[in-house]
Amino acid sequence: MIALSYALLCMLARKPCSGYELTKLLQVFWQAQHSQIYPLLAKLEKAGYVTFELIGQTGKPDKKLYSITDAGVAELQQWIRDQPAAEKLERDEFLIKIYAIGLMEPQTSRRLFLERREALLTRLRRLEGEIKLMEEEQDPPVTDYASRQFGRYLLYQRRVRVVREEIDWVDWALPLFKSSASALPERN
Amino acid sequence: MIALSYALLCMLARKPCSGYELTKLLQVFWQAQHSQIYPLLAKLEKAGYVTFELIGQTGKPDKKLYSITDAGVAELQQWIRDQPAAEKLERDEFLIKIYAIGLMEPQTSRRLFLERREALLTRLRRLEGEIKLMEEEQDPPVTDYASRQFGRYLLYQRRVRVVREEIDWVDWALPLFKSSASALPERN
DNA sequence: TGCGCCATGTAACGCGTTACATGATTTC
DNA sequence: GAAATCATGTAACGCGTTACATGGCGCA
């Protein structure tokens, strides 16, 4: 059982999903390709942690709708409770570039930061949209421990905070490249 | 040339290092084992991007002190300028747990968050210490584009901000697990 | 006496990526 | 007419991890 297995179980604990859907949803916090997910789902099914139902569709390919089993929930709970989490792993090529940013001309540095800012803004909007959708739910509200979305809400809050923080950092760093005076763009 | 190659070149652009030292320093922003780094350094040397000098030591094993070459700097600059950075990759098992936190008893959730908080505080202190060291430099100051440490300073600032942000997020989330009334610990 | 630090390497293995394969429907 | 979306799989490859190998010095 690799970590990705538990990521899949987590998603299925919220609601039944197809492998295709899991691949998309996982992107937010655990990037993996479908070529890795499909075989893993088959393995989880053999182990009895998930089951699937074949759903015939018209106009779209048929799909397998996976659900978590009681054994799956128990396995997941045990992992969450007892397994010490591995150190976080991060691979961000932008940070490599930052480390050697002093080698570049100021205008190149500014360009890289501004491009980063743009990408961050796009992601921020998407995350804020999804959080808003969750917050509109009322019964029960997402801030409630009992909500199906509770964990997902916490995670998205974390995501959006990190993105906002990075935008602030970019805005803090940009004036240090004084190639020319130029006003900062607005965050919203 | 994989991303790690450029990470190594970045480090060597700041100052000559041994493979052993690179392995340690890289942990902050690009985790890799020495078993991957040593062969890569040999490859970079064959390509002419780095050179090394054998340093005999007493009481410690000899070491190879690697330095970046002009060709290495040029290669690095070109990569920073022209290569679009790959999407950031993050693998944090704690986030998986958060997603399914609603399956756990509130006291277990609280325990997980408090343990996380402790680990974050430790890292925060280490990062703040290193930043302080850099800020004590005066000639030129690290906030100066011309400083050898400039890029490293930007990176550490980013790191420390992310950690502070996560602590704030933990403190925001903790009261949502109302298993019992308990005051928040102080950040400092 | 044993563990951790310094220091560099090689070997085996497997997780994870990229590429191959298929095909209907919707959108530009 | 081309490209994207939905949907599931397999095959090849290689990056990255874990483990093996060596050895002196300092510390508890």
Automatic annotation (TrEMBL), chains A, B:
The record's Pfam families line, in alphabetical order, gives: PadR (PF03551), Vir_act_alpha_C (PF10400)
Residues of the Transcription regulator PadR C-terminal domain:
91-176
Start and end residues of each Transcription regulator PadR N-terminal domain = 8-78
Give the taxonomic lineage as stored in the record. Answer: Bacteria, Bacillati, Bacillota, Bacilli, Bacillales
The record's InterPro entries line, in alphabetical order, gives: Tscrpt_reg_PadR_C, Tscrpt_reg_PadR_N, WH-like_DNA-bd_sf, WH_DNA-bd_sf
| Transmembrane portions of the chain | none
In Swiss-Prot or TrEMBL terms, this protein is called PadR family transcriptional regulator
